Amino acid sequence: MLGIYSPNCIDTPAIIWGTSWAGGVTSPANPGYTTEELTFQLKDSGAKALVTQKAFLKTALEACKKAGIGEDRIILMGDERDATAKYKHFTNIRNISGTSKYRKTKIDPKKDLAFLVYSSGTTVRIRGALPFSYLGRELY
């Protein structure tokens, strides 16, 4: 499960399609979330990593710490890079050694999840919505 904590960004489609290609699930989070709201979604979804933008890094760091996601699993997207290079930009994560080849993960659109989207939480705590398959058909 890959969390995305970002406003609209030109990098979002590449990250989502890359995650799907690898057989992963994406859970986008509202960029207006507080640390507590983001922490809840990260824990509830079972996120193992988070992609965010540099401007949202403070909240992302706090939420990941509370959710048990290591700082080495926080990835940046967008135009700004981390000057310290502690947080890698998603375009720098690749195998350049040529030692392994990647194959597209086989998926079953009737069973495999692509997105876990959460409600806005306007009247109650945010919650995961019904999942949709890769083809956009409801699973339930």
Please give a structural write-up.
- With 140 residues, the protein is of the alpha/beta class.
- It has a single domain (1-140), classed as Rossmann fold (3-Layer(aba) Sandwich).
- 23% of the residues lie in helices and 12% in strands.
- It has helices spanning 12-21, 35-45, 57-67, and strands at residues 2-5, 26-29, 49-53, 74-77.
- The chain has a 4-stranded parallel beta sheet, with helices on both faces.
- α2 (35-45) packs across α3 (57-67).
- The radius of gyration is 15 Å and the shape is globular.
- Residues 131-140 have low confidence and may be disordered.
List keywords for this structure.
single chain, 140 residues, alpha/beta, Rossmann fold, 3 helices, 23% helix, globular, disordered C terminus
- What is the radius of gyration? 15 Å
- Which percent band covers the strand fraction? 5-15%
Structural class: alpha/beta
Roughly how many Å apart are the termini? 20 Å
User: Which strand order spans the largest sheet, edge to edge or round the barrel?
Assistant: 2-1-3-4
Mean pLDDT: 86
The helix/strand order is EHEHEHE
Instruction: Please tally the helical runs, counting DSSP H or I stretches of 4 or more residues.
Output: 3
Quaternary state of the chains: single chain
Strand count, sense and closure of the main sheet? 4 strands, parallel
CATH class: Alpha Beta
- Second CATH tier, the architecture: 3-Layer(aba) Sandwich
- Helix content, binned percent: 10-25%
Question: Tell me, what's the shape?
Answer: globular
How many domain units? 1
Provide the low-confidence segments as ranges.
131-140
Number of strands: 4
